[in-house]
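Exercise: predict the structure of this protein bound to zinc ion.
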Amino acid sequence: MRGMTFGGDRTVEFIEVPDPVPGPGEVVLEMKASGICGSDLHMYRGPRGMSLLGATPSEPVIRGHEPCGVVAAIGPGVAENQAKIGDRVMVHHYTGCGVCRHCRTGWPQMCDQQRPLVYGSGAGHGGHAPYMKVPAATLVLLPDELSFEAGAAIACGTGTAFAALRRLNLSGADTITIFGQGPVGLAGTQLAAAMGARVIAVDLSPERLELARRMGADEVINSSEVNPVEAIRDLTDKGADLSMDASGATEARHAALESLRPWGTLALVGVGGEFKPTLGWLMPKQTTVFGSFTFSITGQADCANFAARREVRVDEIFTDRWTLDQADAAYKKADTQTAGKGVIML
Ligand SMILES: [Zn+2]
Ligand SMILES: [Zn+2]
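Solution:
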C-alpha cells in the first residue's frame, strides 16, 4: 500500500508499507476522507521525519490525523458492539496505556504512563493512504447525517473547537470573539453560531473573513486594518463576554484578553507564540483564562451528535478537495494559510 508522508522543507513523499492486517483488538478501515489540519503545517515545514506528538517514529510514517472511513476488516477479539464491517467511523487518533486515569476517562493523549501512540502526527500510520489500522477502542461512530468529510473535520479541528466552546459554557446570551479564522477558528465560528451566540470573527486575511461570514459570523474584523480591541469594544458593551484564540499568535492572544469585558473568559486553543498577560488585565477584571487541548473520545462523539442534530454543515469548512495523488498541491495550498480547509478524498 502507498501512503503519504512529509519529506521535509515543504515537500511530500510517498512511501510503500505492507498492507495492514488487523491483529487482536484491531480493525482496518478503508479510508474515505483524511483532513489537513493546521498542525500538519509544522511537520510539512519542518525537517524530514519530524513528529509532533507522543512516541517518536523510527521510520517514516503515513501522515493525516483526521481519519474517517468504513470498517473493512476486523481482528480477533473485537466485540460486535465495538465494530462491524461497513460501520462508518471516525478515529480518535491516540492510544495510551489504557489503564491510567486519563486513558480511562477518554483522554489517552494525556496518558501519564507512556508516551501515547498518535496516529498521523506521531508514530502511528495515519489516514493519507487507502487503508489504516487502529485499535477498535479508538473508533467513534459517524452519525448517518454527516458526510465522511464532516467526520474528518470532527476528528481534529472541529472537535477541538467544540471542546473549547463547551468549556466556555457558551450560551445564546453571549458575544464571543474568535481570533484566527483558520480551520479551528472557522469551526469555532460555525459551532458558536449554531449554539446561538453572537460571533465576532477576527483575522488578517480577507478571504478567511469572507469564509467566517459564510460560517455564521455576525461581525468580522480585519486586524491588519483596525485595532481589534477598539473595534470589539465598539461592537459590544465594554467588551466581549467570551473569547477564543485559535491563531497561536502572541499579539492576537493579548488582544483576545484585552477585548474581554470584566468577568470575561478566554480559551487558549491555538498553538505557538507567547502569552504574557499583565495582572492589570487579569485581577481587577476578574478574568478567567484556560488552555484547551484537543478533546476526549466521548467529546468527539458529542461534537458529531451535536452537528447531526442541529444540522450544522460541518463539511462547508472544506474549500479544497484533493485526491491522494494531489497531496503535493494540497499541502502547498494549505501552506498559504489564506484558504479554508483541505481534505484528501480516498
Ligand atoms: Zn489536528
Ligand atoms: Zn494511560
